[in-house]
Here is the input.
Amino acid sequence: MSAEHDQTASRGSMPRFFAELDALGAEVRADLSQDDLDHLRRIERIGRACTVAGWATSWMGPNLFSVLMLAQGRTTRWTSVAHHISHGGYKRVPNVPARYTPDGFAKGARRVTQWLDVIHPEAWHVEHNRLHHARLGEPADPDFVQKNLDWLRDSDMPPAAKTALVALMASTWKWMYYAPNTFQELVKLRTGQRRPLKDPRAWLPISRDGRQLWASMAPYAAINFALLPLAFGVLGPAAAASSATNSLLAEWVTNLHTFLIITTNHAGEDLGAWENAPADRQDFLYRQIVGSVNYRTGGDLNDLLHGWLNYQIEHHLWPDLSMLQYRKVQPKVKALCERHGVPYIQESVFKRLRKTVAVMTGRETQQLA
Here is the structure.
């Protein structure tokens, strides 16, 4: 962490700043209503409409419309719907249906109807909700990009080759990183053991853990790349092949899209990182701000394309808010930080991608405080 961050930390630790921050949290929590749940359902319907439109046109030959619609539907189910429900963003709405609460979401058959994904819902809850949010920017953070890519940063590969490898990883990262990494954390919770991600046994079906991992991913693969495309076989072999091709291309786009809006949230030489756990609650809250970055905010279309991950600072301060609540509180948090001299980084997602790739390839480093 830079000297600038250290100096700002002392200014940002003033009791008045945290008192105002707590007041903002209480204010936004009290502003939860049926409108928030209605908004979630609207976003859920948009995601499903994208999926339906994508599949309905998938048999017409490989086409960009089908690919983009299928990709957006898959991204929306994860980043906008599953993410906020699993954090409990809607559980305080009076008479909220169980399927919109962490205890009921994507459980049993609802995994197919609510969040059919390569990522196991319970594993996501353990790795993301519990560990990442509690250990942000620490070596114990399972999503600390710099730590996870130390092998690439330290390698003797030419810079261009490193960048090309990052692009390849971005194309497959849900399958090669998020699914196995989250599942390993679930295994660790259940058994107390965890194999390193670099160990092929962690994700290849040559071990019990590997077989369980692939069994958890099989429904997603079977439905999206076999069963649904084969259903278009009634229109002929070419229709089924086109449908499968569009689905596979959509998966590639989904990986690139989610890599862009997720991986860049906490990576960059200008963000905080720490050797040890926070000293106290104020230190914890401060880290959530200076260790996170926001993108452009405001408007359902903009927020949908960013997967509502453009409110990352507010999300790390209060993980269990609704999507609408993040939009309401974001300008107030930004103004509060500006008044008290607390760094609040908000940049284009593409600028953050450049900084993230620089960290991944070793050109830049997040200094540990």
User: Anything to note?
Assistant: The chain has 16 helices and no strands. Residues 1-12 have pLDDT under 50 and may be disordered.
